Amino acid sequence: MNTIKLTMLEKISLILKMGIGSAISWELAILFGSEYPYLGPISLIICLQATLIQSIRFGIARIVGTIIGVASVSILASSLHASGWSIMVIMLVSLIIPLILRANSIMLNQIALSVLLVLEFEHKLHGYGLDRIRDSIIGAAVALLLHILLYPPNLTKRAIAEVEALPPILANKLKSLATWLETGASQKNYFNLEMDLLRKKMFEAEEKIKKLN
């Protein structure tokens, strides 16, 4: 699973952002006239990712996906009720253009989710579609602001520091290897295990940097 390990302080910060952000998103949604203010905190929780870059990506995907999903249902199913076949047809049609435009999997998931929920609730909950768009924007905006203002995540710096620590370790290992060879290279090779561990550390550092993008 593509996850990023957080320190205890980073976890506490994330929890505080979820709690504070949910309250702010709820109140802002009510202030702007939402009848379903829980949609704001839902968007905030989804958009609060481990890094700022990931949060921005989730925020954009959430907002754009919601708009496309609501528009698709409004155009294609304004007179239909939810059923297995209507969900399939509308979902496939609404995902074709984003797929052609090379939308990422996050946005495709958000479009599909919006199609499903709006198709089900728009006839039962008046104004659900518009509230979903507005509250998604509120939740995403609050998530990004909290990430920037309250203990901004700096996992990239940590990952780079781990990478920068590897060359000196490698140099020391090579010096030890040279000494071992100069002394006749005994049959016991103590370097295979150490080099394997070093390669593992290098691989883990590379993976961390990839996850931050």
- Please provide the count of β strands: 0
Shape: elongated
H/E order of the elements? Answer: HHHHHHHHH
- What is the number of domains? 2
β content, as a range? under 5%
- The tally of helices reads 9
Largest sheet: none
Low-confidence stretches: none
- Intertermini distance: 16 Å
* Overall average pLDDT: 80
Computed over alpha carbons, the radius of gyration is: 25 Å
Determine the fraction of residues in helical runs and give it as a percent range.
over 70%
Q: From the helix content, strand content and strand pairing, which structural class follows?
A: mainly alpha
Task: Give keywords.
213 residues, 2 domains
Structure description:
This protein is mainly α and 213 residues long. It folds into 2 domains: 8-149, no CATH class; 155-212. The protein has helices spanning 8-31, 39-47, 52-76, 84-100, 105-121, 128-149, 155-164, 166-182, 191-212. Helix 1 packs across helix 6, helix 2 crosses helix 3 and helix 3 packs across helix 4 (84-100). The longest helix is centred in the first third of the chain and has 25 residues, at 52-76. The radius of gyration is 25 Å and the shape is elongated. The relative contact order is 0.14.
